[in-house]
Amino acid sequence: SSVQFTDIDLDMSDIGGPVIWYEPANTAGLTEYSVYMAVDASGTLRKYLGNVSVGQTIFSLPVNTYRYTGKLLYTHLIVYARN
């Protein structure tokens, strides 16, 4: 589903704020959602940020989360459902 993010961190190199998504209609068998930063919408070179349980649709990304690793710039936030 659609992932929404509002950056409340004031630094250009950092991000932080609520990551919000919609749960699928059928959550049977799902246990949690994993949140990542990635360099594209396909999840390339993703970096793990954390998990939340099914039933929750907001992940609080801490302010001062650095968007760079070496020369990589993470431009996408991705949420995967896990079982």
H/I helix tally: 0
Q: What order do the strands of the largest sheet run in, or round the barrel if closed?
A: 1-2-5
Low-confidence stretches: none
Largest sheet: 3 strands, antiparallel
Give the radius of gyration: 13 Å
Shape: globular
Determine the oligomeric state from the structure. single chain
- Helix % is under 10%
What order do the helices and strands follow? EEEEEEEE
Strand segment tally: 8
Mean pLDDT: 95
Strand content: over 45%
Could you please describe the fold and organization of this structure?
With 83 residues, the chain is an all-beta fold. 0% of the residues lie in helices and 54% in strands. The protein contains no helices and eight strands. The protein has a three-stranded antiparallel sheet with strand order 1-2-5, with no helix packed on it. A three-stranded antiparallel sheet has the order 4-3-8, with no helix packed on it. A hairpin with an 8-residue loop joins β3 and β4 (47-53). The two termini are 17 Å apart. The model has no long low-confidence stretch (mean pLDDT 95).
What's this entry about, in short?
The chain has 83 residues and is mainly β. It is built from no helices and eight strands.
From the structure above, extract its key features.
three-stranded antiparallel β-sheet, 83 residues, mainly beta
